[in-house]
Amino acid sequence: MLFIFLLGGSNLTFAQQQFTYTQYIDNVVPMNPAWSLTRGGSEVNILGRKQWMNVEGAPSTFMANGFTSIDNINATVGFNLLSDKVAVENLTEFSLFFAKAVRLDDELYLSAAMNAGFRRYNAAYSALDPDDPTLVNSDIRENKGSIGAAVMIYIPGKFYAGVSLPRLSFEDLGTGSVNRVANYKNFYFFNIGYTHALTDEFSWDNAAVMAYTANVPLQADFSSKIWVKDALGLGFNYRTNNELGVLTSFKTGNLNIGYSYQFGFGQSKVAGFNGATHEITIGLRFGGGYSDDLRVRK
User: What is the spatial distance between Cα 110 and Cα 154, in angstroms, rounded to a whole number?
Assistant: First the structure.
């Protein structure tokens, strides 16, 4: 089963698909750092994700990000960290970002962000079978610097739409394989979200993201969640590669805990096996609880 991840479909390797996560409806920063301007105060989020629980070599991910507001210039600074593993492949990314917002009218704002960091990719293919001569000297060790940019328009607490290029790879900082270009494709994201107050106790969040890279089919993702007293959230997620997910969230004071259960159907099943993907998130806010309305910036 391990070889399926390395030699199988195009959606299973770092070279061909950018990492995406299920609970982006609550935190867009890993895809578009400009979204941090829609929040108030400071925030730290961590995520743990395990795909296809019963499949050997299945992807596992740890992610952390955070930011803090610089109120006097209407800006934020923050970081993104990603550690991703599939079989013998390991990917680590780290970047710092700066985002700034300007007011366009009474409600509408424009924000932009720049990020810079590094990306490390290791693949120990020789470990699959030390006696196989075709795998000798096949290991890959890549280190690259990267920059990125993002823009977003938003109405605090109601609406946002943005476009981002989180990683634009540039000069190679180390040695690597002839597949270097494939391993560092540039990915583009389009995000949109809308929040509607149904009653004094119920609100409705909706969000979507599209991911694009050259020579890979466009992937779209849709999420919807109902909040009860802004404390308990229940919703669903659908991805166009035939995956469905159930979303749950719980907020209390400065703490937000989320869990998602995602499963494939149809052709998205791995080798005919429909393994579940579990994802847990923990978020902590400073300078305002999760129950506060998004702050209108001056």
Answer: 7
